[in-house]
Amino acid sequence: MSSILRTLVARDDNNDVDCESVNAQCALSDSFYGYFPSLAANTVFLVLFIFMWIAHGGQGIYYRSWSTFAAMNLGCLCEVLGYIGRLMMHHNPYNLNGVYLFGQDVSSLKPINYIYIFIFCDLVSLALQGAGGGLASVAAQNNDDMATGDNTQLAGLVFQVASLALFAICCAEYAWRVWRNPAASARVPTVFSQNKNLKAKAL
After folding, report:
1. Is the CB of residue 57 less than 8 Å from the CB of residue 73?
2. Average pLDDT of the chain?
3. CA 113 to chain CA mean position, Å
């Protein structure tokens, strides 16, 4: 995570050097991950998540569990896209086509701001839930009222749901901007063509 933050800050602050590959001016440690993502490991995880995606889809249809079907398939889809992005960066960790698929110029916020905002939201929600669990546990051991701990955990959950809803709104807004932007829309076939080629190579 620190390497991601460092890289994005460097890309925003050091616009005089536009790093596109590892060279004398662009060190590997300053790339998005700070290392070359493993081809073997990421291919294995990509294939596993594709199989889990298919399995969860089949289970959801067979048992008619539509909420679980939607949640698990969406989760597997996100994992598959994430590992495709990592595979795209195997030979060149400065290749951010797997991260900024349609161009950061389309976004209403800088990429670094998304990280700052939503990682902060995650930390707050986890802190509230952890603190609430601790308070409830102590209260239970002392035979005291657990309302404070329970309410703190609930506040953490509510905050997490709200931040996820905000993230979904940001994703929808970004998709709308891509759709409305001719240059970004023109990159859509290229992006999906690259992803299909990577899937074929992985399988």
Report:
1. yes
2. 80
3. 14
Mean per-residue pLDDT, 84-90? 85
Q: How many residues does the chain have?
A: 203
145 and 82: one domain? no
* Residue 151 CB burial class (10 angstroms; 0-12, 13-18, ≥19): middle
Q: Is residue 8 within 8 Å of 111, Cβ to Cβ?
A: yes
152 burial (CB, 10 Å; 0-12 / 13-18 / 19+) is buried
pLDDT at 131 over 90: yes
Angle, alpha carbons 28-31-35 (nearest 5°):
55
The structural domain count of the chain equals 2
Q: What is the pLDDT of residue 107?
A: 77
Both 111 and 56 in one domain: the answer is no
The two three-digit tokens of residue 12, written as one number: 């925003």
Q: Residue 121 has what pLDDT?
A: 92
In 3D, which of 120, 134, 100 has the Cα closest to residue 11? 100
The pTM for the full model equals: 0.54
Give how far Cα 81 sits from Cα of 40, 62, 95, 167, Å.
16, 25, 15, 17
